[in-house]
Specification:
Length: about 350
């Protein structure tokens, strides 16, 4: 355990030095918790003693991230770990008032059952004054494919279809989707062999998105991506594939031609490990953090389907797979236009 902590501290110091040199320290360091959470979750999965698990849960509570609250929530029912998890949820929610949606309110209410005294009273006061904002909502329940559908062509083609034609094509696409996408051990997994996207049933305008992803290290040419408003894409790939230019790293707006398409730096973890995206889209501008590091800074996303047109103002979000297994987890979206 002490060795892991030392390694994480050393990594943070090296990141700080690199960012100070590059002049981007402030925006990067502010999101170090996203990278820390990935390491802590890996260590938590390997921990075997209650003491080790408690220590890791405490550290997860210090990361300050929205996803961390939801990780901690999994341990609330545990008699030995529940209070530690509740204290972590309290620390994150009370220290980040921007997490004010329905999920946060629900987690605080559950945490209050494990706490007492000042912390319990603070939660009660917070909930009493809370509004009704939707906040981040979960797009994947870890159990089934509710809220998702198959891909029918592209936004321009879909808009030209008569309702009955679109319904027929959607039915067929949903059948294919259920063959290619499965839920395994609480993860959303692409198990097909070709090119396929799984799409949200709802459409989005301006939004923030959180999503963890992992490529299969044994896959043939690991490759994936996130389509924003039905449009490719925030790129995901194996950076060892230098023959296709993947050494630039994941997170870039790969299909841009006029605007910047490659990420600001390489922030990928080792192939086969989990990575985390924060994606923000307002109008046609996209910002991406990969593992807490800024890789796309307010760049225009071009309309791949017709470059003479601006990006669609409202459309679906899509998770892409491109020939080999891809794993997704902790998928959340927060609307910014409501």
């Amino acid at each position: 355990m002490k060795k892991n902590l030392t390694n994480r501290l050393a990594g943070s110091i090296l990141l700080l030095l690199a960012l100070l040199i590059s002049g981007t320290a402030h925006s990067q360091i502010a999101n170090q918790g996203e990278a820390d959470l990935l390491n802590l979750r890996d260590n938590l999965a390997a921990a075997t003693t209650v003491k080790a698990k408690k220590d890791l849960l405490k550290q997860i509570g210090h990361t300050g991230t929205f996803v961390a609250m939801n990780v901690l929530a999994n341990y609330l029912p545990d008699q030995q770990l529940g209070k530690t998890a509740a204290e972590g949820i309290y620390e994150i929610a009370m220290g980040n008032k921007e997490y004010n949606g329905a999920i946060t309110r629900s987690l605080l209410a559950k945490a209050a059952l494990q706490l007492s005294g000042g912390k319990r009273n603070a939660i009660i006061a917070r909930l009493a004054e809370a509004g009704t904002e939707e906040g981040y909502v979960s797009l994947f329940n870890g159990k089934d494919l509710s809220g998702w559908k198959g891909l029918v062509e592209n936004p321009i083609a879909r808009a030209k279809m008569a309702p009955i034609e679109l319904a027929e094509k959607q039915f067929d696409a949903d059948q294919r989707m259920r063959e290619d996408w499965k839920v395994e051990n609480g993860l959303l997994v692409y198990v097909g062999h070709g090119y396929d996207n799984i799409c949200t049933r709802e459409q989005y305008g301006d939004f923030e998105m959180l999503v963890d992803w992992r490529l299969d290290p044994n896959g043939e040419e690991p490759d994936a991506g996130i389509y924003l408003r039905g449009t490719p894409q925030v790129q995901i790939w194996d950076i060892a594939r230098t023959n296709v230019g993947a050494q630039v790293g994941s997170g870039g707006l790969y299909n841009n031609q006029k605007n910047k398409s490659i990420p600001l730096c390489v922030a990928d973890r080792k192939l086969g490990e989990w990575n985390s995206f924060y994606i923000r889209m307002v109008g046609d501008k996209v910002t991406v953090r990969l593992n807490g590091v800024l890789v796309v800074d307010n760049v225009t996303l071009e309309n791949y389907w017709d470059r003479s047109l601006p990006i669609f103002p409202v459309e679906q979000l899509e998770l892409q797979a491109h020939g080999s297994r891809v794993y997704y987890r902790d998928i959340y979206v927060r609307r910014l236009d409501r």
